[in-house]
Specification:
The chain is an alpha/beta fold. It has helices at 23-39, 58-71, 90-97, 108-116; strands at residues 3-8, 12-21, 44-54, 77-81, 102-105. The protein starts with a strand and ends with a helix.
Length: 117
């Protein structure tokens, strides 16, 4: 089962996901998190995918990056935390090339530091 949870910080929303996922679940979680960030007036978005089992292609990662850019344009910064094996940089590159200030990390502490810098 794919699950999504929400936690709030003073200036950020944290969306933590777990379980098996395809591009569909990840893009839906991005929409969900972006909507929460907008409604809660949080300018930073921390997307924790460490516990997600994703076996997508580079094409899937490209789609996720483009969807993130289209959905999260009103968010100042987006930090994505994922395992080293998942951190191919493809989604990050497409999101950044589309104008989103997004950075991938492999642990939570540096991601939080970058968001709040």
């Amino acid at each position: 089962m794919f699950t999504v949870s929400v936690e709030y910080g003073p200036s950020m929303v944290l969306i933590a996901c777990s379980g098996p996922a395809t591009a569909t679940e990840i893009c839906s979680a991005l929409w969900f998190g972006g909507e929460i960030a907008r409604r809660a007036k949080r300018p930073q978005f921390l997307f924790d995918l460490l516990a997600v089992d994703f076996e997508g292609t580079d094409g899937d990662r490209e789609e996720i990056g483009l969807v993130a850019a289209s959905l999260l344009g009103r968010v100042d910064r987006v930090a994505v935390v994922l395992s080293a094996a998942q951190n191919t940089g493809v989604g990050e590159r497409f999101a950044r090339e589309s104008g989103l200030k997004l950075c991938n990390f492999e642990s939570l502490a540096p991601a939080i530091d970058w968001l709040t810098a």
